[in-house]
């Protein structure tokens, strides 16, 4: 999200364009209700058939009538890194430009991850390859980032954590291998953020991350406009995640090489990169 100047422009938008979906929405529903009747599924193309043979870390589901894509990073199979742009150069600003610079066979998925200024630079804590590019931001202000408690997603050596900013400041003394700060927290110590309502009027394409008790990182992007409350409930009630962090809204994008999904949209900033570990 461009911040703070572009935030004013975003207020006039009701939702971003629906992102291209590389996977069909699953017929099964995670909320236990009976699914609505669906149109017959067309025969897959040769490209889709080939993509389906590649294991995907992402699945499409429906939660409370809203389609989501849920991508799971597992420490035994994946590494997580942050990327802003080529070293010494300007930020990528799009997943398309980022993807051009990568070997897709090494990437499980990638997603924009944190708020940024008009140049694409992070406005909060940001660590890439153990190098801190932006200090922790504890300032007060307007907008989602300052909807406290906000938080930090970080990790080292396959141990990934989401903490509120205050908890991070009080408990983390060593620089992690990666880190990104955003806000608001969706779920804090098993409870939904105190100012998030059940299903508020703000509905946008949104993405987030949370880490469960088994150390797995759950990345979620909505495929239709969603409220903060519904996204928070998905983490708390369905994924049983005790700490989840909102990453961004209205510019949320996903690259999933396994299904040839490569979202395009407004310029982005920090990118979370989930890489495949080499086979033993």
UniProtKB/TrEMBL annotation:
Residues 107-252 form the Phosphodiester glycosidase domain. PROSITE patterns: PROKAR_LIPOPROTEIN. It comes from the Bacteria. InterPro entries: NAGPA. This is Phosphodiester glycosidase domain-containing protein. It comes from Erythrobacter aureus. The lineage of its organism: Bacteria, Pseudomonadati, Pseudomonadota, Alphaproteobacteria, Sphingomonadales.
């Amino acid at each position: 999200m461009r911040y703070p100047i572009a935030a004013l422009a975003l207020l006039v938008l009701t939702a971003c364009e629906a992102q291209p979906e590389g996977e069909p929405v699953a017929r099964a529903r995670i909320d236990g209700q009976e699914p609505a009747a669906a149109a017959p599924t067309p025969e897959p193309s040769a490209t889709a058939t080939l993509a389906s043979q590649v294991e995907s870390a992402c699945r499409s589901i429906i939660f409370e009538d809203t389609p989501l894509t849920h991508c799971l990073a597992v420490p035994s199979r994946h590494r997580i890194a942050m990327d802003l742009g080529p070293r010494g150069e300007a930020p990528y600003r799009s997943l398309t430009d980022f993807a051009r610079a990568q070997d897709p066979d090494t990437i499980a998925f990638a997603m924009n991850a944190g708020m940024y200024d008009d140049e694409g630079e992070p406005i909060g804590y940001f660590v890439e390859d153990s190098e801190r590019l932006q200090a922790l931001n504890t300032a007060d202000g307007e907008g989602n980032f300052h909807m406290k408690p906000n938080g930090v997603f970080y990790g080292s050596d396959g141990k990934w954590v989401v903490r509120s900013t205050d908890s991070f400041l009080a408990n983390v003394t060593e620089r992690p291998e990666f880190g990104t700060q955003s806000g608001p927290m969706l779920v804090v110590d098993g409870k939904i953020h105190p100012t998030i309502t059940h299903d508020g009027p703000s509905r946008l394409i949104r993405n987030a991350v949370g880490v469960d008790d088994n150390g797995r990182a759950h990345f979620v992007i909505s495929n239709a406009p969603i409220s903060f409350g519904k996204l928070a409930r998905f983490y708390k009630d369905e994924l049983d995640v005790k700490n989840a962090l909102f990453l961004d809204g209205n510019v949320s994008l996903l690259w999933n090489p396994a299904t040839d999904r490569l979202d395009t949209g407004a310029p982005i900033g920090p990118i979370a990169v989930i890489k495949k570990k080499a086979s033993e």
